[in-house]
Amino acid sequence: MGSIANPSTWARDNEPSHPIQKVDYPKASSAPVPTEGTEIRQIISDLLHSFNDILSRKEFVKLPEVLNTESSYWKDHIGITETKFTTLTGAARITEFIHENGCLIKSIAADKDPKSASIDPAGTVKCLQSFITFDSEIGTGRGLVNIIRDVDDGDKWKIYTLYTFLYDLHGVSERDVLGENRALYTRPDNFPKEKNWKDYVEEKKRFVDDEPAVLIVGAGHCGLMAAARLEMLGVKCLIIDIQKRGGDMWRNRYHNLCLHDPCWMNKMPYFPYPANWPSFASKDQIAGFLEYYVTALNLNLWNQTSIISSTWNAEVAHWTVVLENRSTGSPVRTTHHPRHLVQATGLNGAPRMPNFQGVSDFQGKIYHSSEFAGATPQHAGKKVIVVGAGNSGHDIAYHAHQHGAKVTMVQRSETYVVGHTTMIDAFKSRYNEQTHTEDADIIFAAMPISVTNRIGHDVGLMFYRQDLPLLESLQKAGFKVVTPPEYISPCFKYPNHPADQLSLATSLPSLVVLTQTRAGGFYVDIGCSPLIASGEIKMHQGRNISHLSATSMVFDDGSEVEADEIILATGFVGVKVHTRKTFGDQVADSIDTIWGIDEEGEQRGVFKRYCSNFSFLFSDSLVGI
Ligand SMILES: Cc1cc2nc3c(=O)[nH]c(=O)nc-3n(C[C@H](O)[C@H](O)[C@H](O)COP(=O)(O)OP(=O)(O)OC[C@H]3O[C@@H](n4cnc5c(N)ncnc54)[C@H](O)[C@@H]3O)c2cc1C
């Protein structure tokens, strides 16, 4: 067990993100693009056939013949090799990597939905797109291919982006237990006849004379989804959580909380949300669903359980983990030997507490947003300061105001604000009632982050145009929003103006990439922005907090805001502090910083198996990503 989770290790556990490589769209060809399904499938299949030929003959030097000359990407999650997540940029790098590492993938085929589409939101660079399946030496996989006409090679169709991920292992497929292949009974054949399903489930869950192959720490969306996938493959999993009941991490959040993203983005595998749920489910619906998900899928969850110690035994390639289960009142310690550990404790580390003087002088309440249980009628007439202008800060300010508090929001730097409807409209083209969430996820994951970032600039500009009245009213009220510097340039006012399109576009951040790099810095407006714009919620912007007096917050320009309660919506440090505390220094020092961007330009630290010394994996994501 780790000895420390203190500020002295925070710097190395929160290394700054690598920069995102700035890329532009590939050159657009003026040659025609087919629209008819059969022809599109044929073109994609022919190209994949050439690709497969090169792989099967191991003539890797010929790979550039099927890859777009100017720019091409192969994003792979354990398809090419058994262990690596990698994003290869450019024909030369792809060829070099395959040459050095070989390629487990034997052949790729076009799957469902071949169609014509475009790489950029404006529809300038046309592409043909298809889901793909592949067969590898160890299993089968899925993915997506986007092919474009290569302007530098006679307008031939070439691969622009290829995304591959391993789905099943040969001989071990979730399809063996799903749908038509479902078992006749849940109990195994050799289970005593006098015992029923409930007896079976309870015995299975206790792991008496049995070992979990995987121990998952954390029973939120990520932990439960990982366990569900593994159980379908017949891998025995034990999930532990410190909470009292399944779903408590949502149940115990503030009273009025609803999801900010529509339900299609947050769907879990094998078991959909009820069809009559609202698009934006409440925290208690989500909590109840997560609790029942465990029962419905027969997962092995131990609540009120934590890790006492964990040691990797290299000779036998398994962990020795001591758990303490407090669910029956008195603590019970047990020892287990899983081969893999998965940390799924959420994205947030310790609350980030600003360090200002006079906290002990302040006579009111001061606390971090993670402790905000919801505003109550007792807030009526109270002077509340919310420090921080991201999603949490806005939600808290809104709820306190709804209960009659006099709220002031303190904002240090600018915030990316997007209207709820604007965001929903944009996401609805991808995540919606008709599209299978897994397919939407594949399309989303298929793009390298650098290309997503380029697309996001243009989407950001569209958002900005759509939300301009709201954003201008916020600025007038003293709230600082992210704006393009060329906001008043001709191209902003006249979208078809040809001048400076790229520099205009690249000056706006991508909302998706903001999430992937910072997991914060933005607000999707669900009601707070108009209250700020109208002055009902007051703003204090751009001044540093100097200190607290007994009854107020004092700023470095001498201004002062009175307060009965101060809520610090100042975010969290990176989650690696939990890794260090729960699994110890050896594990924490051996894994990447979690979240942000790695040296290949992709999401850092998550989902990768750290297998050089031991098998440890960090599983995390925002629900909808
Ligand atoms: C107020 C609020 C609103 C949000 N709204 C949205 C939204 O609308 N859409 C969205 O996509 N995301 C939203 N998020 C982010 C959301 O929390 C995550 O998307 C989602 O819950 C992540 O799931 P997870 O499984 O990674 O982590 P969590 O849901 O946080 O689950 C982690 C679990 O690990 C357990 N745990 C932690 N440490 C230990 C330990 N040492 N031992 C045992 N168990 C441990 C915790 O008890 C918890 O149950 C919101 C977050 C907050 C705080």
UniProtKB/TrEMBL annotation:
Disordered: region residues: 1-34
GO molecular function, one term: monooxygenase activity
Key words of the record: Oxidoreductase
Polar residues: bias regions: 1-11
Alphabetized PANTHER family for the sequence: FAD_NAD(P)-BINDING DOMAIN-CONTAINING PROTEIN-RELATED, FLAVIN-BINDING MONOOXYGENASE-LIKE PROTEIN (AFU_ORTHOLOGUE AFUA_4G09220)
Name used for this protein in its record: Uncharacterized protein
Organism: Coleophoma cylindrospora
